[in-house]
């Protein structure tokens, strides 16, 4: 996913980003094996686009009128086919009709099959319309399907004897009959947009074609392959237009779009002029008056590049993404304008500590600079650091191969490729940014406990919880105490896994019917 709508709200202004990216050093393969030290406050170079220009594309105007498409089918095995018709009532579905008969007996069942990329799909049972003499199937009547969804469709027809046949497949788009859209197509992307950029749509088509062509080169280097299909990007002019696809008439003011690997599509909203919710105090936010239409349009290229990385992650890595910092940081690094992530993190180092990469951390949490999206910047910065010091973009390719081909976590893959414990590599990166190194006790607070022995039980024993209290709350760690979502009931046998004390309080880690967590000694054996 991409962040709600600067789409990197901490950028100090889009023009500044463009200037800095235009003047940054040309991207070179990073030297391998260097042991990094404190960088004296200097940021590592970020990747720049390949010099791609004048990528071929086509530009047409589509939609905006009611149409009926007709298709014919070959007769098969005694089944006689007439026409198929397709009409769109976007946002409330599509109607398909079929004329068919059997030379042997009556037609008993007609099913419409729809297939998207990766062979996912849906089906609809057709109903007989006696007045018109056709079978009728409906898709997406309740709304919720984005305009310009591309698919192939075919029919399966069965007669009373049990014989059945499948028709040939035809391609189709879920078109919008109420609005005209621009449609540009290049080698790597089909782009739809409406109600903006009308004075020079060719400029948008050309820049998108060049940007995605350049990014595809980088993704091939970093992932080992392009997408096996041509993805689609749909840019709605505002949230109200996006919300209309659900057919409810209710506008979701926070809807910013989505990306679907099943559909092979990225659906986004053109950046508005408003400050994103809860970002009023973000020190990097761009004031509403500075969001010119040109600047707003410029966001669609990087956002589309970001979302295509998510489609690549699904196809190349099989969804083995794990932590948010990795999936979103990877998408940020491989887009056209990943933002000044090191600058933001260095500033945060003067205000707060940074969570470890070894926990998953929510992107919607505001930090001390008033901004959200921390995992995006952490992930992009860490990957940039790894590639700079441990082998360039080929390091990323080997990382992908270990994760997909060998089924390893990102942590184990990094250890294999660097020859170092992950914590050591993470601390190299933290030191580079100006944060303190982490200790093992930062990752596992139990390591900070002092040894403790109990006369009633020992590690490995199974004991039964007392009758009171009826429910014992379990915690993720002894200190600080973060509650688990579950609890353990009175009179339940539990196994003692670890124990220790800190500041006079005894903490016990237990296994309660497969759920592991920490409790106090009093909760385990009752008051003494």
What can you see in these coordinates?
This protein has 528 residues and is an alpha+beta fold. The chain has three domains: 14-56 and 181-440, Orthogonal Bundle (Neutral Protease, domain 2); 68-173, Immunoglobulin-like (Sandwich); 445-525, SH3 type barrels (Roll), CATH 2.30.30. It is 27% helix and 25% strand. It contains twelve helices and 22 strands. It has helices spanning 14-23, 201-223, 239-243, 293-317, 324-333, 341-348, 374-390, 393-405, 410-418, 422-433, 440-443, 521-525; strands at residues 58-63, 68-72, 79-88, 94-102, 107-115, 121-125, 127-129, 134-139, 150-159, 164-166, 170-173, 180-185, 190-193, 232-236, 257-260, 265-269, 462-464, 471-475, 483-489, 493-502, 505-512, 515-520. The strands form five sheets. The protein has a six-stranded mixed sheet with strand order 1-12-13-14-16-15. The chain has a five-stranded antiparallel sheet with strand order 2-3-4-8-7, with no helix packed on it. Strands 5, 6, 9, 10 and 11 form a five-stranded antiparallel sheet that branches. Strand 13 (190-193), helix 2 and strand 14 form a beta-alpha-beta unit. The radius of gyration is 29 Å and the shape is globular. It starts with 13 loop residues before the first helix and ends with a helix.
Note the topology.
Elements: H1 14-23, E1 58-63, E2 68-72, E3 79-88, E4 94-102, E5 107-115, E6 121-125, E7 127-129, E8 134-139, E9 150-159, E10 164-166, E11 170-173, E12 180-185, E13 190-193, H2 201-223, E14 232-236, H3 239-243, E15 257-260, E16 265-269, H4 293-317, H5 324-333, H6 341-348, H7 374-390, H8 393-405, H9 410-418, H10 422-433, H11 440-443, E17 462-464, E18 471-475, E19 483-489, E20 493-502, E21 505-512, E22 515-520, H12 521-525
């Amino acid at each position: 996913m991409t962040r709600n709508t600067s789409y990197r709200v901490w950028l100090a202004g889009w023009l500044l980003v463009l200037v800095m990216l235009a003047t940054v050093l040309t991207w070179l393969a990073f030297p391998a094996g260097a042991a990094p030290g404190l960088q004296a406050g200097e940021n590592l170079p970020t990747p720049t686009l390949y010099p791609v220009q004048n990528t071929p594309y086509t530009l047409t105007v589509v939609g905006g009128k009611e149409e009926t498409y007709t298709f014919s089918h070959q007769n098969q095995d005694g089944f006689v086919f007439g026409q198929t018709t397709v009409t769109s009532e976007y946002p409330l579905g599509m109607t398909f009709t079929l004329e068919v008969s059997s030379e042997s007996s009556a037609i008993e069942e007609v099913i419409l099959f729809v297939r998207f990329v990766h062979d996912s799909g849906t089906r609809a049972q057709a109903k007989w319309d006696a007045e018109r003499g056709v079978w009728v199937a409906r898709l997406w009547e309740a709304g919720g399907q984005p305009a310009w969804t591309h698919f192939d469709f075919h029919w399966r027809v069965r007669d009373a004897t049990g014989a059945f046949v499948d028709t040939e497949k035809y391609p189709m788009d879920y078109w919008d009959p109420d609005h005209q859209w621009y449609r540009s197509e290049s080698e790597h992307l089909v782009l739809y947009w409406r109600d903006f950029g009308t004075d020079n749509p060719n400029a948008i088509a050309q820049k998108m074609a060049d940007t995605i062509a350049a990014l595809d080169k980088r993704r091939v280097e970093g992932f080992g392959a392009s997408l096996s299909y041509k993805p689609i990007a749909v840019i709605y002019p505002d949230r109200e237009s996006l919300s209309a696809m659900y057919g409810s008439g209710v506008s979701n003011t926070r809807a910013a779009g989505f990306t679907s690997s099943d559909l092979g599509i990225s659906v986004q909203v053109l950046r508005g002029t408003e400050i994103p919710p809860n970002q009023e105090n973000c020190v990097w936010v761009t004031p509403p008056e500075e969001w010119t239409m040109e600047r707003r349009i410029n966001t669609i290229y990087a956002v589309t590049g970001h979302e295509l990385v998510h489609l690549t992650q699904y196809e190349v890595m099989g969804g083995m993404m794990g932590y948010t910092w990795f999936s979103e940081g990877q998408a940020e690094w491989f887009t056209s304008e990943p933002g000044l992530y090191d600058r933001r993190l260095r500033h945060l180092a003067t205000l707060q500590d940074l969570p470890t990469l070894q926990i998953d951390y929510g992107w919607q949490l505001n930090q001390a600079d008033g901004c959200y999206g921390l995992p995006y910047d952490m992930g992009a910065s860490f990957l940039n650091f790894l590639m700079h010091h441990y082998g360039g973009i080929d390091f990323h390719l080997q990382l992908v191969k270990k994760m997909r081909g060998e089924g390893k976590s990102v942590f184990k893959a990094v250890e294999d490729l660097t020859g170092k414990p992950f914590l050591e590599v993470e601390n190299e990166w933290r030191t580079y940014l100006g944060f303190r190194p982490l200790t093992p006790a930062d990752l596992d607070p139990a390591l900070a406990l002092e040894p403790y022995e109990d006369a009633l039980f020992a590690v490995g024993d199974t004991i039964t919880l007392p009758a009171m209290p009826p429910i014992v709350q379990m915690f993720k760690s002894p200190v600080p105490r973060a509650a688990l979502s579950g609890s353990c009931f009175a009179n339940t046998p539990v196994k003692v896994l670890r124990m220790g004390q800190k500041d006079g309080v005894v903490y016990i880690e237990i296994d309660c019917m497969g759920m592991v967590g920490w409790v106090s000694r009093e909760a385990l054996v009752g008051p003494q």
